Amino acid sequence: xxxxxxxxxxxxxxxxxxxxxxxxxxxxxxxxxxxxxxxxxxxxxxxxxxxxxxxxxxxxxxxxxxxxxxxxxxxxxxxxxxxxxxxxxxxxxxxxxxxxxxxxxxxxxxxxxxxxxxxxxxxxxxxxxxxxxxxxxxxxxxxxxxxxxxxxxxxxxxxxxxxxxxxxxxxxxxxxxxxxxxxxxxxxxxxxxxxxxxxxxxxxxxxxxxxxxxxxxxxxxxxxxxxxxxxxxxxxxxxxxxxxxxxxxxxx
Length: 252
Fold this sequence. Notes:
By secondary structure, the chain is mainly α. The chain has two domains: 4-22 and 178-251, Helix-hairpin-Helix base-excision DNA repair enzymes (C-terminal) (Endonuclease Iii, domain 2, Orthogonal Bundle), CATH 1.10.1670; 34-132, no CATH class. Helices cover 53% and strands 0% of the residues. The chain has 13 helices and no strands. The protein has helices spanning 4-20, 34-41, 47-56, 62-66, 68-76, 81-85, 89-97, 107-124, 139-147, 154-166, 184-192, 202-212, 221-230. The longest helix is centred in the middle third of the chain and has 18 residues, at 107-124. It is globular, with a radius of gyration of 19 Å. The termini are close together.
């Protein structure tokens, strides 16, 4: 009989393999535009692009949200903090909302969050967003700093911190405050693997991950997300293609 610990270990092992990968950069794009991806990965010169993309990543598909900094770069001619600081909230709303397709589903809210994030980076971090994660801070400190941005909740804050550590190789002094970002894919995978009950809340999934792997609960996030997105579909899951097939209680 497969134990809960075996299931947990499989998710953790996959997350740790990604963690140890030498490549520095956002996996799978995260867009299909090479220029946009270069901007998002450039945390040395444009760390604010990463921060702003994370803030935009809500209530739309992530590929659409992460393209927003690039759209601004094209419209404004560059994406320096100097240029962004010169834009009024009205101008940001114009860029966000003009054209045959709006940049975001909720342009008014996102324009406000974008404008206020630029102001916060300017005022709190002297125009350098990389100060949010500089000098190996505790993971809780980085999450708290993301939570100070308008429109950012625990899910986005933990996601941003996790990506910084896992994919952009930013070092923190610890990782135990980085939770799973319990979106629909992660919740479904946790449920089907028997780690949470049928109607578990987001909070239950988060605290379950903490109890299963307290030193770094978020290490299981990307494994669960990729399984949910790539094979563990809501209907007609591709169980034969799933890395968890031999430990999944649904198949035993």
